[in-house]
Specification:
Blueprint (H helix, E strand, L loop, with lengths): L1 E7 L5 H13 L8 E7 L4 E7 L13 E2 L5 E9 L2 H8 L11 H20 L2 E9 L4 E6 L8 E5 L2 E5 L2 H4 L11 H10 L12 E3 L4 E5 L7 E4 L3 H10 L7 H18 L7 E4 L4 H13 L5 E6 L8 H11 L2 E6 L2 H8 L2 H4 L9 H12 L4 E3 L4 H5 L3 H15 L2 H12 L3 H15 L7 H13 L3 H9 L27 H27 L4 E3 L5 H9 L13 H8 L18 H6 L3 H7 L2 H7 L4 H12 L6 H18 L6
Parallel strand pairs: 13-14, 13-16, 14-15, 16-17
Antiparallel strand pairs: 1-3, 1-9, 2-3, 4-5, 5-6, 6-7, 7-11, 8-9, 8-10, 11-12
Helix pairs in contact: 2-3, 6-20, 7-8, 7-21, 8-9, 8-21, 10-12, 12-19, 14-17, 14-19, 15-17, 16-17, 17-18
Length: 649
């Protein structure tokens, strides 16, 4: 895993370009602490930079930026292409015909033969790269199918810039760091900034599955989509495995996941896995254990609050699979030590509060390994979120219920205090056998928002986002609808899954894991997001994913071959923290420091009175506003970091 950056500016001389490119890559030090590379083309006024985290081919033959065999192409690349041996065979070449055994060298050979988009269609892996064509004097930026690895680009005067993180762009003196108001509004709604938006007005993110090509540094780019998730979903729906038995599909998924995990064990350095104790990470670890001659190293984070703790569940899975298990119980002091450095790790505002335990588990893992596999993607592909299970029923009820009745019922549900909801639910479970749900108040308030929505698209926004309309805290009404419209799939549950796969997954989940792991120079791999698994999942009939109010049916069946059902058949929590309580307690002083009228007014976008009232209501126990408040706190911390001119290195 690595960090990449570069600049294309014909107005600069070579020494200046190299100085700027070096500064851009230096702020990516944590992404690649093992080495630095630079290549400059004086004729094209381009300088490409690279920070290296050595994972495969630790020799000089893996050093980047790297020229192709013909000398036409130069690449700076972040990621892993796991099917390098298969690609060598397709090229008709032996391993010995290459200088080293890095996937970068193979990738260049495939690009020379099939072109960049043609090569991307053949790559199996996670990747973000920049490719300079010395013959055509053009620059292309490429991002993997699911958006596992990030890639930003922007303008600074006549210069074109790119980097693995937006902080690299800020190192260019002419770059304008003015905020994009639409990105701020989108952030307040979703706790993250969805691609292609960036927090900076003059920067954008490369969308997953696309090639962005520039003929000159000032020209508008051409964009080619080499992998289209909507086409994948629609083709999957058209070619469903209806004739195959459930057991046969389980066999196929088991075999496919085994191969995916096996490919991701490719490494010249120690590796392990995150283990939350849930279905997804347990499946990955079970398959690793099947394939590994030595005990798998596993890592988990817990808390002392039972509602957010799965460490005992993870420990039970680890014991059954015979892993070398490592555990850290996160305390409020751990969280406080992390929150002040969040802008250093997440170089644009990002407020999924599980970013804290994700960073802590990454840091724990890095003490033992350099690569860690994770279970991300299972919920989106196989129907694992609660909204996939009950939103279709709520949508049906909404169509039958008058809007005034829905609005009144939703308002009544939202007026109940979270503590009352949670206590009532704890009493209901043993008496009436109600489904055990962790943090039931959160689920009830989500249900209320879904009931109040006037459309299926509005329902998704209310379920997947924090603010359906963040205008209550913004001075100006800013358009915030950056979500794609619902896809034309037949089942509402699958429409939601597709929206999660193309929105929530890359913009929140994968961003969180990438930044947290890279902050400690740890490579994180996601075998459930092998594109072959994704395409298979869309061919699986919905009834094999969701049945009798339970999601991930087919994935659960695969896991049951390796782990007893009783060890994983329970409500999920994941790497979470009890944020609402911590904001009233150990994080209160930190929050009080940030929530001041001068800091809010200095941004020039927020209704400070509204924000402060929300904070005081939460702090004093009148309401639970922790999610909205966390968004604002993270933004204010980030803005303070920027204003103080703090350095990312």
């Amino acid at each position: 895993m690595c960090g990449i950056a570069g600049i294309w500016d014909p107005t600069q001389h070579t020494e200046s370009l190299e100085r700027i490119a070096t500064a851009m890559t230096e702020v990516l030090y944590r992404r690649g602490p093992d080495g630095h590379g630079l290549w400059t083309d004086p004729r094209g006024a381009v300088s490409l930079g690279h920070r290296r985290l050595s994972i495969v081919d630790l020799s000089v033959h893996g050093k980047q930026p790297m020229k192709s065999e013909s000398g036409r192409f130069v690449i700076t690349y972040n990621g892993e292409i796991y099917n390098r041996d298969e690609l060598r065979a397709e090229l008709g070449r032996s391993a010995e015909s290459f200088r080293g055994h890095s996937d970068t060298e193979v990738a260049l050979a495939v690009i020379e033969k099939f072109g960049l988009a043609g090569a991307a269609k053949r790559f199996n892996g996670m990747f973000a790269l920049a490719l300079w064509d010395r013959e055509e004097q053009s620059l292309s930026l490429l991002r993997d199918r699911l958006g596992i690895k990030p890639l930003f680009y922007g303008r600074a005067g006549d210069a074109l810039l790119f980097g693995s993180q937006s902080s690299a762009l800020r190192q260019v003196p002419q770059f304008d760091p003015s905020l994009d108001s639409g990105a701020v509004a989108a952030y307040l709604r979703a706790s993250c900034i969805p691609a292609p938006l960036c927090i900076y007005r003059d920067a954008r993110k490369v969308m997953p599955g696309t090639v962005v090509r520039f003929e000159s540094p000032t020209s508008e780019p051409s964009i080619e989509q080499y992998w289209d998730p909507l086409t994948v979903a629609l083709e999957g729906e058209k070619h469903r495995h209806h004739s195959a038995t459930f057991e046969k599909l389980v066999d196929e998924l088991d075999e496919l996941l085994t191969d995916s995990v096996n490919l991701r064990l490719m490494s010249d350095v120690p590796l392990g896995a995150f283990l939350s104790g849930g279905i997804d990470s347990s499946t990955v670890v079970a398959l690793m254990a099947k394939l590994s001659a030595q005990p798998v190293k596993t890592f988990t984070i817990g808390t002392r609050e039972a509602s957010h703790d799965e460490s005992s569940d993870a420990k039970a899975i680890a014991r059954h699979l015979g892993t070398e298990h490592h555990e850290l119980i996160a305390t409020p002091d751990d969280a406080l030590a992390v929150v002040r450095d969040l802008p250093l790790y997440y170089d644009e505002p990002f407020a999924d509060s599980s970013q804290i335990p994700t960073f802590l588990v990454s840091r724990l893992a890095r003490e033992h390994v350099t690569v860690s596999l994770s279970g991300d993607g299972g919920d989106e592909l196989f129907g694992g979120y609660n909204r996939h299970l009950w939103a279709p029923r709520v949508a049906t009820a909404n169509r039958l219920m008058p809007s005034l009745v829905r609005a009144g019922l939703a308002s009544a549900l939202k007026s109940i205090s979270p503590d009352t909801v949670n206590e009532a639910y704890r009493r209901l479970v043993p008496k009436f056998g109600a489904m055990d749900v962790r943090v039931p108040a959160d689920k009830l308030f989500k249900l209320a928002s879904a009931m109040a929505s006037g459309s299926d698209h509005g329902m998704y926004q209310s379920l997947a986002n924090n603010h359906a309309d963040p205008s209550e805290v913004l001075l100006d009404r800013i358009p915030t609808d950056q979500l794609a419209t619902l896809p034309p799939l037949k089942e509402f549950a699958e429409q939601l899954m597709w929206m999660d796969m193309t929105g929530y997954l890359p913009n929140d989940i994968l961003c969180k894991v990438d930044r947290a792991s890279m902050a400690v120079s740890l490579e994180s791999r996601v075998p459930l997001l092998d594109h072959r698994v994704v395409e298979f999942a869309w061919r699986v009939p919905l009834a094999h994913k969701i049945k009798s109010g339970q999601g991930k049916r087919i994935l659960r069946k695969v896991l049951s071959r390796y782990v007893p059902t009783e060890l994983v058949d329970r409500p999920k929590s994941g790497f979470g923290i009890p944020l609402a309580d911590w904001l009233r307690g150990p994080l209160r002083d930190w929050a009080d420091e940030l929530f001041n009228k001068d800091a809010l007014d200095s941004v020039g976008m927020f209704r400070s009175e509204s924000v402060l009232k929300s904070w005081h209501d939460h702090r004093d126990g009148r309401r639970d506003n922790n999610v909205h408040l966390w968004d604002m706190l993270v933004f204010l911390q980030w803005n303070q970091f920027q204003s103080d001119g703090a350095q990312y290195v």
